[in-house]
UniProtKB/TrEMBL annotation:
InterPro entries: Ankyrin_rpt, Ankyrin_rpt-contain_sf, Multifunctional_ANK_Repeat. The keyword Repeat applies. ANK repeats lie at residues 23-55, 159-191. It comes from the Eukaryota. Gene3D superfamilies: Ankyrin repeat-containing domain. PROSITE patterns: ANK_REP_REGION, ANK_REPEAT. Keywords: ANK repeat, Repeat. It holds the Pfam family Ank_2. This is Uncharacterized protein. PANTHER family: ANKYRIN (PTHR24123:SF139), ANKYRIN REPEAT-CONTAINING (PTHR24123).
Length: 388
């Protein structure tokens, strides 16, 4: 060992090829294959390249893997050995180590290196420190990685997962929140078409809802790096029963904020769709007109069934399948009621079955919800029929 130190100190080339059993090899490969840690350290100190590859594109890190010299592996990792390199067989240092049954021990070595900030990786699909930290729920490490500035929050691993998806899948909600604040795009999908929200565990779903609703309702959306208008997140939250009446300190709801921001149109539509369907499935008192607006309207209790049937009574005539619904009265209705104050009432809407039927509700907003909800549910029922 002293001789090697002396030769290198005298100016010998640490990369000079030396004779080996199967030909020639770099001194670093020999040290890695032999598990000779002191020699490895000296060679690294004198500039030996830790990422040089053999003819089969193995690195010294991979050679340590194959011979299970984990102290040498750790030394190379600390010196900047690249975990993103793959050999000609498509194996990386991590996959080789895991194949040798050193999964847990390897995780600790890599985790310690991640904590120290001494992990190098040029291909995030092969290895990503961000994903490792997200999987472990390591908030301090995530903060450190994000604080470096050059990290891509939305980078995908080989399975198509973002770090935010990994955090949610593992139940690390605080880690997810940190990534969300840093700009994670929760609308992105993995290779299976799943979003971060879809991967949430049942025991963490409620916490996740609050975090995302806070993001939608936040008045710090832009300054804190939130992404506005996540329609997919809105839909999933609403299906999970998120409270659409929740307000922030200024009395704003998710819907009113979505309407205020032009970039949130998709989110606005998602919330309105949910509210409209929920509204028409419940009962509401309406005034129903007979004979295209002739005569006095009668009060009815109107609701829509999940089967797509609109109902305002028990008889067959009062349970109909709608072709469509539209805001406002028809031209014929207006003619019939041209002398009435409700001839052009904005609270009137109509449905088309075998004939047109007109209803009046207590406000134009309710009329819009009725039309939107009827058309949405009718379209869903028709789509299910086509699919069957």
């Amino acid at each position: 060992m002293a001789a090697l130190q002396l030769i290198l100190d005298a100016g010998a080339d640490p990369e000079i090829l030396m004779q080996a059993r199967d030909g020639q090899e770099r001194p670093l490969y020999y040290a890695a294959r032999s598990g000779w840690l002191p020699a490895l350290k000296v060679l690294i100190q004198h500039g030996s390249s830790v990422n040089a590859t053999t003819e089969s594109h193995d690195t010294a890190l991979m050679i340590c893997d194959k011979h299970k010299y984990w102290d040498c592996f750790e030394e190379l990792l600390t010196a900047g050995a690249d975990l993103g390199i793959q050999n000609s067989s498509g194996q990386s240092a991590v996959s080789i180590a895991e194949g040798n049954g050193y999964g847990t021990g390897l995780q600790k070595i890599i985790w310690d290196a991640v904590v120290k900030g001494s992990v190098t990786c040029t291909d995030p699909e092969v290895f990503s420190a961000l994903h490792v930290a997200a999987k472990a729920g390591g908030l301090k490490v995530l903060q450190k990685l994000i604080g470096q500035g050059d990290v891509n929050i939305n980078v995908l691993d080989k399975y198509g997962y973002k770090a935010a998806m990994v955090a949610v899948r593992e139940g690390h909600i605080d880690a997810f929140k940190l990534l969300l604040y840093a700009g994670a795009d929760i609308g992105m999908k993995n290779k299976k078409g799943e979003t971060a929200v879809a991967l949430a565990r049942i025991d963490t779903l409620e916490q996740l809802e609050w975090i995302l609703l806070d993001a939608i309702l936040a008045n710090i959306v832009k300054s804190e790096g939130f992404q506005e208008g996540h329609a997919d997140a809105c839909k999933l939250l609403l299906l999970a029963g998120a409270d659409t009446t929740l307000t922030n300190e200024r009395g704003e709801t998710a819907l009113s904020l979505a309407q205020k921001h032009s970039t949130s149109k998709a989110a606005e539509n998602a919330i309105l769709d949910y509210l409209a369907k929920k509204f028409v499935l419940a009962r509401d008192q309406v005034a129903k007109f007979k004979r295209q607006g002739r005569g006095k309207p009668h009060e009815k209790s109107l609701s829509m069934l999940k089967s797509g049937v609109l109902s305002w009574g028990s008889s067959k005539r009062r349970n109909v399948v709608c072709q469509e619904a539209a805001l406002g009265p028809s031209a014929k209705f207006v003619r019939h009621r041209h002398r009435k104050v409700d001839g052009n009432n904005p609270s009137v809407f109509r449905i088309v079955t075998l004939k047109e039927v007109h209803f009046e509700v207590s406000s134009p907003d309710k009329a819009e919800l009725w039309v939107r909800g009827i058309n949405l549910l009718s379209a869903e029922v028709r789509a299910q029929g086509v699919g069957e």
